[in-house]
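Please produce the structure of this protein holding sulfoacetic acid.
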Amino acid sequence: MSADARKPVNQAGTANSKLAALNTWVAEVAALTRPDTIHWCDGSDAENDALIAQMLADGTLLKLNEKTHPDSWLHRSHPDDVARVEHLTFVCTTAQDDAGPNNHWMAPAEAHAKVDALFDGCMAGRTLYVIPYCMGPIDSPLSRCGVEITDSPYVVANMRIMTRMGAAALARIEKEGSFVRGLHSIGELDPDRRLIMHFPEELTIKSYGSGYGGNALLGKKCHALRIASHQARNEGWLAEHMLILGIENPQGETHYIAAAFPSACGKTNLAMLIPPEGYRNAGWKVWTVGDDICWMRPGADGRLYAINPEAGFFGVAPGTSAKSNPNALATIQHDTIFTNVGLTADDQPWWEGLGNGQQPATDWRGNPYDPEKGPAAHPNSRFTVSAKQCPSYSPMAEDPQGVPISAIVFGGRRPSLVPLVFEARDWTHGVLIGAAMGSETTAAATGAVGVMRRDPMAMKPFCGYNFADYFGHWLSFDTSGAKLPKIFHVNWFRKGDDGSFLWPGFGDNLRVLEWMIGRVKGEAHAVETPIGHLPTGADLNLDGIDLSDEAEAKLFGFEREGWQAEFASIGDYLDGYGPRMPQALKDEQRRIVAALEKG
Ligand code: SAT
Ligand code: MN
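Below is the modeled complex.
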């Protein structure tokens, strides 16, 4: 290692003061982590080819069948490093109350000291990669830039797909001067030496000891949600865990919908929905803008405009099939990185629910597949792929102005009580519906699966500040000039007494979205109840769908007693945040409790 190799270089080649802060930070990080080499990523094909070749040589990647999956790779993670680690994820604000009961908190000085001790010398023998990236279209005023420093070439390759990474992002940073700092090392991949630290007041992230997506691709959950939610509050916009899709009706009119569901609840499937045959024949189309994150801000006309800050999909592989999500399957046929899926004997990727008639030979750990020892693919195995490869990718996704949002949808996995769909009476009621969201936990985070927990706006693991303040921020958008979207709640996961799902879901969810657009346009009918406006079965187009009496009753019904218990629990939940909880939200909860009592 030469002394020169350690010296950070200014890629722009000038002593530009706006990059001085970046150069200084890279130098400080290099002094702490002591890498052998520093590489500034330009995002070029040549750079990517060289990284892939290096990872094939050292076993980080395996080449998949070139005939069936050209330029696609399999990565097997450390078996203890397969999901986000919420218990090791901290929001480090000066005042603990600013992080709120919804986050694990540590004082900034203590957090820096703890995590810097792990970073000390951790890149010896490794290359330090500097990844300038832009979240959102390069030329969009809604976009924000960051720089991730990492010692993982796998992270570089994934960030190249998931963000606008390289020279263009660096040029924007040079112009703007500001960027989010993200320091990452895979460390020893030891779960006892793993910390994901956020310093929203410093626009800084430090992540150590994990190579898994949500912990390591810092542009995603760490920047685009935890840090961005904090920035958004200060700057008057919203950073949300939402997909964005466009629905084009036979008249050629497109309405955009943003929808929040917890991780692994079908956001990618909904974002890439294929209309049922009757709708297709009539000329309906669905356009994918994003499948995970949505940044929105009011435009000059008072409507909310949204961009997808990401450039790719980091989707859950298991369950993805030609039936459940043909668009996703088409997207991942080439130039895709698979993580922790199984393999067929001829090196094709395989997962439970793929249903293509093939059989796995090797499991996600690289052992011969043995059904006694668990699934072939890890339940949280993933694909990383450019959004541009998706057949339904919306051309509007690259529009710097974003797309106008007509409806916001909240949803979760609720096997009982919650009907298929209902509509909020107004914005405040909608914010309460989002704040009260509950869902069963999934494999996207470590911990028990299938446990019911409150996950407001699907942001429980991702809001970078106190939820009470966050709800207040949401309420603040209801100004006199605002033309806000309507808010809805959906539940695709309602179960019957025998435990089976009552609603077919997938493409048929368009029937529910069509009703929502009808409501937005003032055309569709609904029944008023204490929990909001509900359609009857007759208000939806259910042509070709055969619902049992039980399904019809549970999907479109309103169960007063169950909702009374639910609203008592929502009241307790809001009270848990103490005096910071906005009074308007508490009043709304009380209004509904009173309406439920009236009978
Ligand atoms: O791993 S991620 O956090 O990026 C995916 C998810 O859990 O939504
Ligand atoms: Mn997500």
